[in-house]
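Subject: sequence -> structure tokens, single chain

Hey, anyone have a minute? Need the predicted structure for the following. Not urgent.
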Amino acid sequence: MPSDFAAFLREPLTVTVVGVRFRIPYRPAGAWAIGLNRLNVLAALLAEDADRERIGDLVLEYPQAVDDLRRESCRILGESAGRKWWEAARLLSTSSSTEVLGRLVLSGVDPWNRSLGEWCAATYAW
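Reply:
Had a minute. Here:
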């Protein structure tokens, strides 16, 4: 269950890669689900184009950037869902299965109109 009301927020997130801070804009659950198959770079995938390019440059320039990016990706996944990152990842993965996704969509829940936290809550409730 969500630990607080973070799941309802649609505020931008901030990640830090080798000391450089980046703003990640609100993205609906559908965007998180698409990026989940590349969890290690999820934060970069959700960033604006210019920031995504800069993050890529940092990864090429600094060996530590890969670890920072993975850590920050997991952190914002959990923060945005209001859960532990691995719980959010599991719920997102489960929601992508044909049966669960079909039931959620037929019940009127749209991953492009819901926050990650709302989508995880709907999946958990199912």
